[in-house]
């Protein structure tokens, strides 16, 4: 399918499609999607990885309680243990005082009270299918990427935020970009390929309001380590490229008055950007 063309309309507090953080062109295939789909084929419940029957695989189903409401999820152990985080939890030693077998220990429920069910649902969908909603699509004719919701509603106002782009996160007290939340969860669960996928998909969204960008950036800084270089750099580059929009944003002024490491990093990035521009403008003195 062809990528949707959005109008270049301007809005004082929103991003037009020209402010997209990522590039639509990419390599021949997203390796994160390919790798996870191959993994899914090897570990699909219909074809157990060890050649045993599907009934024996069902004995390896792990129950998870997610969030303060303890919403129930279930996943096959072999699928879940692709994540080192869950592998450590699933393979934890059983209680010495218990007479239960190792198999019953493996099926002990995992409780994640601080995780959000909507985000964890994306994690499970990725582990089983190699992607999560809205899914990534490749237009082979133009060698471009878009999201499956991009052409779902052709009558959508060009100024509207892309469907499925944001998610209310109680920890942030506001809506943030869904892909940022997924990226931070992937960081926590050590799913490097999912991090790459989430970052790629985030760059395909458009018309995201300034306040959502800034709230998402703060969330990213709060839920990634200081040595994280991808998602944080993505936001710094986005704000610099879209500085004309942010200069007119009252939200940006309030956010900067509150301060924080995000804005120190932004100041350094701005200085480096100006240095690069000055260097490029200097005449070549080499003989």
Automatic annotation (TrEMBL):
Family matches, as InterPro entries: BTB/POZ_dom (IPR000210), SKP1/BTB/POZ_sf (IPR011333)
Organism name: Aspergillus ibericus CBS 121593
Annotated transmembrane regions: none
Name of this chain's protein: BTB domain-containing protein
Region span, Disordered: 1-58
One Pfam family from the record: BTB
Residue ranges of every copy of the BTB domain listed in the record: 60-131
Signal peptide annotation: none
């Amino acid at each position: 399918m062809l990528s949707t063309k959005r109008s270049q309309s301007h809005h004082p507090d929103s991003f037009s499609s020209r402010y997209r953080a990522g590039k639509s062109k990419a390599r021949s295939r997203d390796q994160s999607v390919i790798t996870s789909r191959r993994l899914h084929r090897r570990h699909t419940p219909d074809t157990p990885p060890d050649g045993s029957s599907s009934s024996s695989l069902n004995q390896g189903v792990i129950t998870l309680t997610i969030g303060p409401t303890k919403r129930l999820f279930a996943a096959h152990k072999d699928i879940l243990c692709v994540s080192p985080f869950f592998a450590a939890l699933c393979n934890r030693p059983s209680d010495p005082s218990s007479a239960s077998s190792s198999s019953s220990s493996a099926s002990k429920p995992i409780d994640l009270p601080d995780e959000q069910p909507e985000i964890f649902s994306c994690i499970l969908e990725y582990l089983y299918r190699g992607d999560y909603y809205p899914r990534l699509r490749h237009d082979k004719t133009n060698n471009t990427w878009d999201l499956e919701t991009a052409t779902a509603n052709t009558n959508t106002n060009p100024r509207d935020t892309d469907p499925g782009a944001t998610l209310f996160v109680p920890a942030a007290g506001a809506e943030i970009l869904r892909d940022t939340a997924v990226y931070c969860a992937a960081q926590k669960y050590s799913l490097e390929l999912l991090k790459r996928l989430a970052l790629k998909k985030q760059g395909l969204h458009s018309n995201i309001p300034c306040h959502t960008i800034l709230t998402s950036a703060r969330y990213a800084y709060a839920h990634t380590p200081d040595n994280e270089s991808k998602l944080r750099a993505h936001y710094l580059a986005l704000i610099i490229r879209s500085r004309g929009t942010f200069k007119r944003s009252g939200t940006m002024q309030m956010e900067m008055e509150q301060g924080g490491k995000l804005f120190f990093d932004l100041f350094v990035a701005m200085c480096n950007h100006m240095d690069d521009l000055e260097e490029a403008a200097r005449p070549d003195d080499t003989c």
